[in-house]
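Severity: low
Component: inverse-folding endpoint
Summary: output formatting inconsistent between runs
Steps to reproduce: submit the following structure tokens with default settings.
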């Protein structure tokens, strides 16, 4: 039933308010009969036989008259239902409820209405099915994946029995189930059922129908999460181009396709391509739907994420601060989109070294999500995990560990031991252990995650390679350099095959391997590899990207091991100049850069230059402490 539950509530209240307003007795009786019907079949209210009989008496009609009307709806022959079952496409009630902060209230209402409708009309009636379908979407958005899955499996079987497999209602429910699997990290299952749904839409509606293209877009997202980015990119380009042709460049669905493609570019490290496309989407959305429309604000959010990936944190902050304020004003502080904007701004503050500001924002987000969603909701757990990371960067390791354990345990229980988020929380806890010198505990967790990801995703999935890289880091910290090297070589090879030699992730793994060579006193190999890393970073990421500066640090270290002081000093001074300008004197990376340059000055006997820089470090550290 393509109608918001609030519409039916409004109709009911309106009818009740009108009964005293009319002198015409026949009109009053007609309204009373409509109210008797509403209370009998729970339209806009909970089912109430008592109230139904009250209004039936007012209408001066008989029970048999009411039963005939109900039976007409039950058999799906009444004009009432035919008039609302129109082909207007699926309506996204969930985001509407979320934006208005009434999602939990809506869930309770749909649960009650679905039960009442099933009791009155049966589980195969279209009204019951539509209510359950909306309820499943709400449950999914609330992180109640098991309940959503059970409901959707039931709906799929009902659709197959009543309408057959080759039916768009069946395909809609299959896509909804794929979305549940997607949220659970069950991407293979999501892919399988998404492919089925797309085939049904293509066969029934044709390849260019909006529902077919929406199904293709969902499928592309599933491929993207499995690291099959080229497949995802191909599907998204096809969807975008078809929508441009069928719907036009400025249609909301076309712009959504462009935004999805930009996200896939971003995930592949093609940040410049992503930025260019996101700017186009942002400008068109501003023009077509206005600068403060929710979808326009989502475009601002996406562009800020890409700028952060490019290391352009100041520019990201300039977008995120007004975005947070706009969403607070338009949607309210408790709205999930407002809280997500605050989360991203906190992450930017963390990148900028402004850890106190990051902490303050993250605490607000945790408090609001606990209040609105509850302690065990996936979004609450995610925000607690972010705060734990900020504590870690502040070297408040005991608080970080305590909070991360609080996140991990409910995640195991609610999302499952093998859910992607649970595995990420284990990796984060391992990182906190590592900072505290608890290397065996860190290694144990990292090994568990790596083996789980190998089994679930394959040995060359991007997430598996990340697991191998963090484990290599822990082995490196334990002095087990040969084992670390073996893993890092696998990661470099895997990322080259998966992404190509110029992908940012490949370059990062080459840098790690070069640093391991350095620790193994393989100076020449380290220098040669680090030189490649610097050149690739400057070409792909730009001279001012944080990863480029990090690679310059690594190459400087390799030069210093061979007592090549002049090129080392040149690199460190260049990196310091950039960091001062972009990050400021008080940023931890800037301070570390200055310490390295002081060491290089001293090694050359340039005491005055070293002392001048030491004074600057002391002043900056004191200012940062304040």
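Observed output (run 2 of 3):
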């Amino acid at each position: 039933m393509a109608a918001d539950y609030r519409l039916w509530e409004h109709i009911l209240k309106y009818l009740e308010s009108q009964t005293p307003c009319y002198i015409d007795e026949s009109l009053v009786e007609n309204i009373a009969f409509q109210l008797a019907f509403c209370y009998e079949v729970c339209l806009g209210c909970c089912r109430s036989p008592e109230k139904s009989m009250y209004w039936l008496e007012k209408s001066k009609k008989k029970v048999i008259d009411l039963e005939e009307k109900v039976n007409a709806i039950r058999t799906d022959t009444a004009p009432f239902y035919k008039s609302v079952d129109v082909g207007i496409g699926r309506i996204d009630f969930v985001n509407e409820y979320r934006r208005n902060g009434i999602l939990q209230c809506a869930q309770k209402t749909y649960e009650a209405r679905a039960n009442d409708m099933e009791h009155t009309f049966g589980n195969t009636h279209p009204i019951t099915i539509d209510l359950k379908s909306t309820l499943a979407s709400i449950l999914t958005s609330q992180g109640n994946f098991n309940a959503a899955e059970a409901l959707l499996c039931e709906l799929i079987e009902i659709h197959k029995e009543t309408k057959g497999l080759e039916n768009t209602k069946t395909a809609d429910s299959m896509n909804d189930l794929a979305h549940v699997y997607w949220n659970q990290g069950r991407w293979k299952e999501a892919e399988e059922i998404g492919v089925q749904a797309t085939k049904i839409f293509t066969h029934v509606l044709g390849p260019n129908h909006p529902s077919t293209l929406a199904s293709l877009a969902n499928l592309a997202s599933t491929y993207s999460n499995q690291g099959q980015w080229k497949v995802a990119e191909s599907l998204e380009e096809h969807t975008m181009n078809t929508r441009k042709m069928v719907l036009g460049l400025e249609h909301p669905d076309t712009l959504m396709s462009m935004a999805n493609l930009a996200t896939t570019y971003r995930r592949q490290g093609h940040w410049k391509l992503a930025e260019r496309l996101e700017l186009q989407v942002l400008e068109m959305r501003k023009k077509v739907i206005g600068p403060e429309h929710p979808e326009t604000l989502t475009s601002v959010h996406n562009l800020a994420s890409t700028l952060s990936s490019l290391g352009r944190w100041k520019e990201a902050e300039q977008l995120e601060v007004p975005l947070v304020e706009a969403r607070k004003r338009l949607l309210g502080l408790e709205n999930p989109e407002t809280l997500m904007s605050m989360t991203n701004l906190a992450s930017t503050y963390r990148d900028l070294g402004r850890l106190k500001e990051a902490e303050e924002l993250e605490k607000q987000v945790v408090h609001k999500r606990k209040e609105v969603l509850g302690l065990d909701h996936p979004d609450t757990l995610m925000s607690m995990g972010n705060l734990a990371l900020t504590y870690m960067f502040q070297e408040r390791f005991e608080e970080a560990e305590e909070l991360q354990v609080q996140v991990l345990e409910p995640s195991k229980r609610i999302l499952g031991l093998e859910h992607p988020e649970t595995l990420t929380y284990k990796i984060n806890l391992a990182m906190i252990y590592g900072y505290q010198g608890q290397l065996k505990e860190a290694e144990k967790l990292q090994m568990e995650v790596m083996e789980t990801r190998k089994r679930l995703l394959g040995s060359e999935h991007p997430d598996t390679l990340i697991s191998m890289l963090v484990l290599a880091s822990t082995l490196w910290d334990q002095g087990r350099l040969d084992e670390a090297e073996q893993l890092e070589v696998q990661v470099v090879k895997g990322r080259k095959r998966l992404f190509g030699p110029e992908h940012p992730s490949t370059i990062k793994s080459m840098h790690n391997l070069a640093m391991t060579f350095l620790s193994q006193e393989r100076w020449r190999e380290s220098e040669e590899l680090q030189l490649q890393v610097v050149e690739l970073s400057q070409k792909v990421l730009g001279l001012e990207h944080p990863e480029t500066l990090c690679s310059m640090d690594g190459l400087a270290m390799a030069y210093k091991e061979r007592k090549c002081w002049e090129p080392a000093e040149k690199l460190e001074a260049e990196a310091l100049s950039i960091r001062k300008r972009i990050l400021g004197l008080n940023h931890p990376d800037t301070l570390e850069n200055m310490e390295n340059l002081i060491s290089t000055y001293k090694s050359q006997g340039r005491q005055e230059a070293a002392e001048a820089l030491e004074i600057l470090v002391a002043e900056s550290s004191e200012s940062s402490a304040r």
